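Re: that chain you flagged

S.,

Sorry for the slow reply, it's been a week of failed gels. I finally had a moment to sit down with the sequence you sent. For the record, here it is as I used it:
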Amino acid sequence: MNLKFDFNNPTRILFGSGALNELGSQRMPGKKALLLMSGGKSARVSGAYGRTLEQLARAGVEAVEFAKVMENPIKEMVMEGAAFARENGCDFIVALGGGAVLDSAVAIAYQHVSEVATPPSAVVPGLPKMWDSICAKAMAKDRQNRYATASEFKTDILTYMNGGVPVAAAFNPLTDLSNMKARKEAERDLPTTPVEPHQQPTQAFNPVTGQFEQIPPANGANSAALQSRAQQRAAAAKAKKRKKIIIGSVIAAIVAVLVIVGIVFAMNGSGNKSSEDTVTIPEVCNASTSKDSIELKLKASGLKMTEKQDTDSTEPEGTCTKMSPDAGSKVAKGSAVKVWFSAGPQSTQVPDVKERSQEEARSILESAGFKVNAAVKTEDSADIAKDMVTKTDPAAGQSVPKGTTITIYVSSGMTTVPSNLVGQSKDSVLQQYEGKFSFTVEQESSDTVEAGLITRVSPDSGSSIAQGGFITIWVSTGKEKVAVPNITAGTDYVTAELMLKAVGLKAQANGPTGSTAVVVSINPGAGSQVDAGSTVTITTKAGSTGGGTGTGDGGNGTGNGGGTGE
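Prediction finished late last night. Pasting the structure tokens below so you have them in one place:
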């Protein structure tokens, strides 16, 4: 729901989206405003502070800032705010915020206007003091001390203009506020004293002619008729038709004067300060101006410097960072101007922003008083999602001066194949990188890697792949196994040797190896599984030297052609 309203009671509240942009078009009750705010930074960060000053300037209003409102306002703050408003000649208050700020605005305004207004005779030299009493009664703070009706107000004015003594002369609400009984009795019973015949005629201002005119003094029948307020009312009624225009105009003029005088004097305390009593704060706060020079320039303008330390500044030590009131503000001569000087960049730890978004990381680092490099670097990460922060340079936890530029690293969404997989056991690797990669396991024999250990990977170690990507690992089954061939006894040695070489085995003779040598036995025996390349021992003996051929079993045989063999 989009709420928007303009409330005037006579306090004016502008509320709703974009309402602040309408401030400059409002009818302002003066030319100088007290800008009331809390001591927090929200109004400045959001831009509301700057837009308020812009809108007030648009309306031709000068503003002085009082940013000391706390969550639970105390009397001392209210009194200080009221004094500050009077010192700076503020005409009205602009409260930027809600809650405590609005409450404080009401309290400060009350304190600001609660002083007694300056008597008109102090403003208009030669004005009869009786007008002071009439005005004082008309503007009494307690409504019970004011005139009860407009008729009573008019009667007192006419009574004095006709030479009589008004009721206001018998009771001054500024000095006898508590004497309520005496007030009522005075108003009820006090007779009006007529002017003696020899007195000078009373003069009254006629707004119709624009001149002061003589009013004949009361005498004879008129004197008898004006012995009391009741008689005065009767006489006035008879002359009502004749005096209607004049009386109405006079009352209107006096009321207008009273309202103007009351507002001006209430808002400005004891009246407008002369230009000789106020000075404009010069622009002295900049990086190139020394502390002593600033103090001398303020002193030359009739001002005092109150030095403050700015521990949040990243500027070099001794640099002027801000002033209060701001340069250009008009203040009473002799006022103290608060000037903040940098304590120098303070060292602090770099916050840990790992696994945060770039925007979050930047905000956290800047809030901690650091600058952030506009250029963001990327790097592969096995476990941090794409575009999330992986690290900073300087690293998190490192203590560096405020204002240091921090570089942010973010994940590319890619990762690197670990370089230490070959030689590790399959089970340990699968456990260590569970959830980070998808593994495919293959087996192969290896002459150099023992069974159960990884022999190779694909993609190769150091390759860049997507997070959670596939990696194929080969696990060693040990050296290759071969079966010893079936070499029977009596087989010539040369043939046996060739049979072993054919399956990747080596032959070693235990006996003669000549052309006549024959196999007696082999070790390991036929069908045994042995490592490829291993050696099989062949036991041999010399065969027959005859021309025939023969066969033997267990070393015995018969041959044809006259030959025998063992």
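What I noticed first: Residues 240-267 form the longest helix (28 residues).

Talk soon,
D.
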